[in-house]
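A protein record pairs a chain with a discrete description of its three-dimensional fold. The following entry can be read in just this way:
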Amino acid sequence: MNLHVTEKTPQWEQVPPKYRNHWQRRAAETKGLDTPGNRLSTSGLLLVLAGLRELKKDRPMRATALVFTGRLLDLMDGTAAERTETKSPLGKRIDATADKLAMLAALSLDPRRGVLVEKGVLPKSAATLLYAHHALNGIFSPLAERKKGQNYSPSSLGKKSSFVQWASIGVGLIAVSAKAHGAEKAGAKFKKIENLGLGLGLAMGILATMGYANDALLSGQTNKVKADQHPPPIDS
């Protein structure tokens, strides 16, 4: 799982123009907009949105396939950026924004009335907790980045928690599909797996959020205390 860690300067700007590969030249021409990673991030978001639309129309099997494919593309964007040497701060922001928009669309502005709750994929309590968790991440992560600098990236735990949460939602979609085709027992088994996954994903997510909050609110205070404990020497 690639964390899409970047430097302050886009990778193609660190290479003389005549030595850039095809994708680096394309990135330079489009000011970083058209890169393999950005294509995968935006395509993944569009597929998730299409899947949610299919779910709204009571087509759970199509919804499952689209959402799974969309999230798979999101997992590949960092690797694509690394292999084509087109990592950049803009690409990192596009990836993070696509992730947030996908979850926001899944949960809706009111998580108790979103399509996942409406169609029985998520219980209201889980949707509300997921919404609160991601809303806090949306507050603390930018604050931590502002304090730590542009090189600050989501933690490995944060990425893994997001993966587990989406995987659980995918299992919930399978459960709904199974029940829609008369496989009640299979649907019930998948629902149990989904609930276990959601519990694990939320627990991991809460720990990751606590890490972002610490980086955003407490790290500076800790550094200040250390500085106070070791004052600079006084010239004689």
